[in-house]
């Protein structure tokens, strides 16, 4: 299941209706072993074994201009190489407004078929097909 | 390198591997640097033999590293996600709900 989180929905609604202003945030991607929901954060991969959220992914260098109501990532989005011990089976991703582990707010998420990330593996969202964000 | 016995240490020094095929042989060139290298001319049988044994060796190596048999060595794990949002209807419905809630409806 995928969605914007309640936090982002509220920010966008407030922005849309002139209640508040929502500035473009940092967009950092994390991997999860228990799926987030609109109102719960799930379980992010343990902060060890060389895991880290991605660097800020905002901007035209990283995303294709939205067309037909959706955008995709321009470049491969690679995580650090798993080292020392497994990250476990990742089942979801979430985009947060902070690249710092455990910090910030989740903005959107999606789950997928679980994949074990083992030592020496590199998790990647491939360019153009890795992440699609669609508003329909 | 002709006539020399190549030890394990020498293989650790390999700086690049080039493959080519001609005369029904696979040429595996282990490059130590710009001027030194070792070429193994392998028959199809030898290639199969190498692959099978390297796969076994990989599993042993990974097990020794604690990664467990069958885990990837430098695998790229491709992930795909699609965040699909029916934003306008969702937003309007939510706004309506919030307004109703504030109005005590």
Defining key terms:
heterodimer, A: mainly beta, about 35% strand, B: about 100 residues, alpha+beta, three-stranded antiparallel sheet, about 40% helix, about 25% strand, elongated
- Quaternary status of these chains? heterodimer
Radius of gyration of chain A: 15 Å
Average pLDDT of chain B works out at 73
Shape of chain B: elongated
Nearest-integer average pLDDT of chain A: 94
Strand content of chain B: 25-35%
User: Ends of chain A: how far apart?
Assistant: 15 Å
Helix content of chain B: 40-55%
Order of helices and strands of chain A: EHEEEEEEEE
SSE topology string of chain B:
HEEEHEEH
The spatial strand order of the largest sheet of chain B comes to: 1-2-3
> In terms of structural class, how would the helical and strand content of chain B be classed?
alpha+beta
Going by helix content, strand content and strand pairing, the class of chain A is: mainly beta
Number of separate strands of chain B: 5
Shape label of chain A = globular
Largest interface: which pair? A-B, 41 and 27 residues
State which percent range the strand residues of chain A make up. 35-45%
Uncertain stretches of 5 or more adjacent residues of chain A: none
- Taking Cα atoms only, what radius of gyration of chain B do you get, to the nearest Å? 29 Å
Largest sheet of chain A, in brief, is: 5 strands, antiparallel
Number of helices of chain B: 3
